[in-house]
Amino acid sequence: MAMPAVVDLRSDTVTRPSSAMRQAMATADVGDDVYGEDPTVNRLEARVAELLGKEAGLFVPSGTMANQVAILSHTERGDELFIHRDSHAYYYEGAAPALWAGAMLTLMDGSEGLFSPEDLISAVRPANIHHPRPRLVCLENTHNRAGGAALEMSRLHPVIKTAHDLGLMVHIDGARLFNAATALNVSADQLVQDADSVSICLSKGLGAPVGSVLVGDTEFVHRARRYRKWLGGGMRQAGILAAAGLLALENRHRLAEDHRRARQLLAGLRELGYQAWGPSIPTNMVMIDTPGPAQPLVQEMASEGILMGTMGPQRIRLVTHLDIDDVGVERALSAFAKWQGASQDAG
User: Fold this and answer.
1) Last-in-domain residue among 198, 220, 252
2) Mean predicted confidence (pLDDT) in 50-62
3) pTM for this entry
4) 3-state secondary structure of 303
């Protein structure tokens, strides 16, 4: 008997290109992007810059490269970067700011991945040869380790304004920025209007197979292009990939469906008695805190065809995306109910 299809809730990076997306890739108009001659890449960069209210864009292979190119473009060696300790650029990017930019990271604390203006003011030391040069603030929206929290402008703006008042630049890791805009019912440009640079990921909730775009003013993007080259991110006939990104952007409004399914999953898990939670403004993630090690539950769900990831020894993350439908949510909840029943019987 054939096993049912896997319900993969590990991440929204696992999506497969649709038939329409594959067709767009197959028929893409291409050229050599390192020479600036790929028309589809040029359209993608211009489109993202337009959507985010910035002057120019740069297509790069990954979100990590987008963040690191931004950091390199804003800083010099020995500069100080202020970042929340749970931010992706610190937690999941392999010490890249230290490796590539030679930057010192000052780790900040705060609710849902955002520190306060007051804490930033306290963290910035006066100019002195004994201190690093304060140069850059990095923010993240949505915030992954805060459960996919969507951060509204009323929370972001005071931090950004304070950073600018202190003479600092601001980069926003907006890997899932369109999830935030969808959850907050605002246009994405409103969330980043005061930021000096922004990156978005095309291969997460948007559903493209590869790529991110970094945007800012023209001078910033000119610098970023050189750093992309140095990091090996210059691609040739990359329009094949950019075509997928353009189509993904046009379908961004369907992210609301992922959010609805995440709410459905959260409600079902709580009804079953799990310690499931989401942030104050949720998007496409659900967290489960387990009383003991999470791995046995992850392994048991995998045997039922339900794949999940962990965010710590006792925390599980579930992510909805375009390859998860209502049937998949119900299958997942049924598997969780089965495990809960077995655990209670064993107890």
Assistant:
1) 252
2) 98
3) 0.95
4) helix
